[in-house]
Amino acid sequence: MKIVVCVKHVPDASGERGFGDDLTLDRDVDGLLSELDEYAVEQALRVAESADVDAEVVALTIGPDDAAAAIKRSLQMGATSGIHVVDDALHGTDAIGTSTVLAAAVRKAGADLVVCGMSSTDGAMGVVPAMLAERLGWPAATYAGRLDVADGHATVVREDDTARLTVEVDLPAVVSVTDQSGEARYPSMKGILAAKKKPVLEWGLDDLGLGSDDVGLDAAWTGVVGAEPRPAKGAGRVVTDADGSGSAAVLEFLAAGRYV
């Protein structure tokens, strides 16, 4: 069995983030593997390590050269190999275009199961797994809190505040997992050293049978219409309580801001 895990290199949330002149996300900043995709890698590795499945795990990403860091982290965690789709024409591609590229790459890779995080930490749309399944013509089982694979089926358990839903789909299939699916492992020193020897393929649009008209900013169905920096945080209000009026001032502040 071949499990493809879709991973994304995103700007570090603890650093400065912003938009470029064309209102696309500025990716020329420090980045890392999306935290929510770490759970997808973890679940794929657990499936591969289970007694019922003999599988390899392939980390797949789309993006510029720096996006290779997402594959590197996945390999350090234990993935078998990586695929990096890199092409200048991909700049500005939206979720619809991303699903097109991922579907072509999954077909070329010959996957039996695709595992995704429930969302990316930069776009936070959560729509790509369903779009990918639709393009592949495969069943989708999304927002899984637990994933099991056996006998040509994937079984997921989805929980919310009121119910627990168990869904079984035939393989091949697309599954997205939540941050409740199981804590992602930290790479060991052995895993970090082993990752250096694992193969990573680089594919362009030509390798996937796609053209520049299929992707990029001009082909995007969605886009950012405006962006402006968040205003600087203002100074707080200091209330002295020498005459015992402090509590009244606090209540006035809370009422004015409709905090109560």
UniProtKB/TrEMBL annotation:
<dbReference type="InterPro" id="IPR014730">
    <property type="entry name" value="ETF_a/b_N"/>
</dbReference>
<keyword id="KW-0249">Electron transport</keyword>
<protein>
    <recommendedName>
        <fullName>Electron transfer flavoprotein subunit beta</fullName>
    </recommendedName>
</protein>
<dbReference type="InterPro" id="IPR033948">
    <property type="entry name" value="ETF_beta_N"/>
</dbReference>
<dbReference type="InterPro" id="IPR012255">
    <property type="entry name" value="ETF_b"/>
</dbReference>
<dbReference type="GO" id="GO:0005829">
    <property type="term" value="C:cytosol"/>
</dbReference>
<feature type="domain" description="Electron transfer flavoprotein alpha/beta-subunit N-terminal">
    <location>
        <begin position="22"/>
        <end position="212"/>
    </location>
</feature>
<comment type="subunit">
    <text>Heterodimer of an alpha and a beta subunit.</text>
</comment>
<dbReference type="InterPro" id="IPR014729">
    <property type="entry name" value="Rossmann-like_a/b/a_fold"/>
</dbReference>
<comment type="function">
    <text>The electron transfer flavoprotein serves as a specific electron acceptor for other dehydrogenases. It transfers the electrons to the main respiratory chain via ETF-ubiquinone oxidoreductase (ETF dehydrogenase).</text>
</comment>
<keyword id="KW-0813">Transport</keyword>
<dbReference type="Pfam" id="PF01012">
    <property type="entry name" value="ETF"/>
</dbReference>
<comment type="similarity">
    <text>Belongs to the ETF beta-subunit/FixA family.</text>
</comment>
<dbReference type="GO" id="GO:0009055">
    <property type="term" value="F:electron transfer activity"/>
</dbReference>
